[in-house]
Specification:
mainly beta; Porin; twelve-stranded antiparallel beta barrel; disordered N terminus
Length: 311
């Protein structure tokens, strides 16, 4: 059964686990059922980072781990309990965590142009240059006066770059349920999860359709998803708090978003255990995310190519 969810084992390779899991399902031996799956992928992968001035996320090694009990299961970071399982239908309780925090591990000092032709950010006359609240730390690296004068522009017109850093966000632990429906046309997966560790107290929903097919040694998988994210989730991971909004005199108060994604995977079975794998994922952000002042891309992409060994 092919399932789509947001999951990861290792911080460096979180975005690739979905691809490798889909791949392993494509070329698994027919009618083989066992209580565990373990695989290793090694090659080259890259996930784009949509944050301003951020580094892309490389990957060279990935682990695929799944353990299945009578009702409980662990599947690449997703812990679940099966409530109902029929021939073509399943209902699971799931516990997982949000992968969007990974971007913050690859941030550089962000640079925003002040008073330039590219944007219209203006500093509030009463805002300090070093600001701290519950979620946000804005620290400028240049020795600047603590408070702007009440009138006048202390900077000449043009590209004045003020590097700053944003505090890391926490991982989000989520709980919810998952519905799965399989047919000869493909697999439909629906998930709803709610944040339970008070990281942002938001929720999200994922609706995905997956189609797998095989031709001799070749295996292919395609997935199309719609991912709804609540306003609390979007604001926590893509906003920077009221202090930043006041400091730059901008108004970013995002609502909920619906991102659309496409995932394509191909593999060629070299032996019963070893396969060549290539995958690409494209995710288009909704306006609530791409309008964030710290985002400079309207999409993210993930690619991977290499070898996958399934034990």
């Amino acid at each position: 059964m092919n399932q789509f969810s947001i999951k990861q084992i290792n911080l460096m390779i979180a975005c690739l686990l979905i691809f490798l899991f889909n791949s392993s399902q494509c070329y698994a031996e027919e009618n083989l059922e066992r209580a565990w799956d373990f695989g290793i992928g090694f090659g080259y992968g890259n996930s784009s980072n949509p944050f301003i001035g951020a580094d892309d996320i490389p990957s060279y090694l990935s682990l695929d781990i799944a353990v299945y009990g009578e009702n409980f299961f662990f599947d690449n970071g997703e812990l679940g309990y099966t409530l109902l399982e029929k021939q073509n239908f399943g209902l699971n309780l799931i516990t997982t965590y949000n992968s969007e925090r990974i971007y913050y591990s690859y941030l550089n000092n962000l640079g925003l142009s002040i008073f330039s032709s590219e944007n219209s950010f203006g500093l509030s006359s009463n805002s300090p240059f070093v600001a701290l609240d519950e979620d946000t730390v804005v620290t400028f690296s240049e020795p600047l006066p603590p408070i702007l004068p009440s009138s006048g522009n202390p900077f000449p017109l043009g590209n004045q770059i003020l590097p700053f850093s944003i505090a890391n966000k926490r991982w989000s632990l989520n709980m919810g349920f998952e519905l799965i429906y399989d047919s000869h046309f493909g697999s439909i997966n629906y998930q709803y999860t709610q944040n339970v560790n008070k990281t942002h107290s938001g929720s999200d929903m994922i609706l995905g359709f997956t189609k797998n097919w095989q031709k001799k040694r070749w295996g292919f998988s395609s997935t199309v998803t719609a991912h709804w994210k609540s306003a609390q989730l979007v604001n926590y991971y893509y906003g920077v708090g009221e202090v930043y909004n006041s400091l730059f005199d901008i108004d970013y108060h995002p609502g909920s978003s619906i991102d659309v994604g496409v995932n394509l995977t191909a593999n060629y079975r070299l032996t019963n255990h070893l396969s060549l794998v290539a995958s690409v994922k494209f995710n288009k952000f909704a306006s609530a995310i791409k309008n964030s002042p710290i985002i400079d891309e309207s999409f993210k992409s993930i690619i991977f190519t290499g070898l996958y060994y399934r034990f």
